[in-house]
Write a structure and sequence with these properties.
The chain has one domain: Rossmann fold (3-Layer(aba) Sandwich), CATH 3.40.50. The protein has 8 helices and 7 strands, in the order E-H-E-H-E-H-E-H-E-H-E-H-H-H-E. It has a 7-stranded parallel β-sheet, sandwiched between helices. Helix 1 packs across helix 8, helix 3 packs parallel to helix 4 and helix 4 packs parallel to helix 5. The longest helix has 29 residues. The radius of gyration is 17 Å and the shape is globular.
Length: about 260
């Protein structure tokens, strides 16, 4: 069914590559105007240009999700260029890759600044814009690591993504209580074939062994694809999910089911 988000305006953070890029492309395919926010402006511009080349509407925005001023400016620019904001995808994230006894306080704070503070700021300013538009949908990209603990250097990542899980639920209830018309849900990827996962794998002493072990950890026996997450976000962004808020959609090849 084409046009599932036709007429909507979406802002996706961390959308120059990986899950964010796939999500921006999928939303554009289904009719949304998309603002691609990323700390790396040049690849964000390239991603936006690719969408425009396919007949879609897209702009690139400089967005460091840890900076409040960047969020204020990005939301304002999306509203100015497209007239409103209907959908926000809090996708930008980072992995820590350190065991807890080797993890510095500065590294811990950096992971949380991006993965959790960035989501808070997106919620804060995205929801205000959506209230001006009469409602909308916020989708927070958490992780299966926000639902279960994962060993091998994922301490800060698990903690930050667990924070996203509960922030989503609390924000959803708050938005409903205040009658804002804003829905808030989370998506929980398993191991997905993205540049971030590749970087984590390459950091292992034996990348080939690590790749095989991580793939084997998925009951379906393979990594997921970015479009798998994009399709989940599309549903939550569309009016098909009008009665869905405070939910967690797990897209993990069965990892969490065990």
């Amino acid at each position: 069914m084409a046009g599932r988000v036709a007429g909507k305006v979406a802002l996706v953070s961390g959308a120059a590559s990986g899950l964010g890029k796939a999500t921006a492309e999928r939303l554009a395919e289904e009719g949304a105007a998309v603002a691609i926010g990323d700390i790396r402006l040049e690849p964000a511009e390239a991603a936006a240009a690719a969408i425009r080349a396919q007949g879609g509407r897209a702009i690139a925005l400089k967005l460091d999700v840890t900076q409040e001023a960047d969020w204020v400016a990005a939301v304002a620019e999306a509203e100015t260029r497209f007239g409103k904001l209907d959908v926000l995808v809090n996708n930008a994230g980072t992995a820590d890759g350190h065991w807890i006894h080797k993890l510095s306080l500065a590294e811990w704070r950096r992971v949380h600044a991006i993965n959790l503070d960035g989501v808070f700021l997106g919620l804060k300013y995205g929801a205000e814009a959506m209230k001006r538009a009469g409602g909308g949908s916020i989708v927070n990209i958490s992780s299966v690591a926000g639902l279960v603990g994962i060993a091998e250097g994922a301490t800060a990542y698990c903690a930050s993504k667990g924070g996203v899980t509960m922030l989503t639920k609390a924000a959803a209830l708050e938005m409903a209580l205040l009658k804002t018309g804003v829905r808030v849900n989370s998506v929980h990827p398993g191991y997905m074939r993205t540049p971030m996962l590749e970087a984590v794998i390459e950091a292992y002493r034996d990348p080939a062994e690590a790749r095989a072990r991580l793939e084997a950890a998925e009951p379906l026996g393979r990594f997921g694809e970015p479009r798998d997450i994009a399709n989940a976000v599309l549903y939550l962004a569309s009016d098909e999910s009008a009665f869905v808020t405070g939910a967690q959609m797990v897209v993990d090849g069965g990892f969490y089911a065990r």
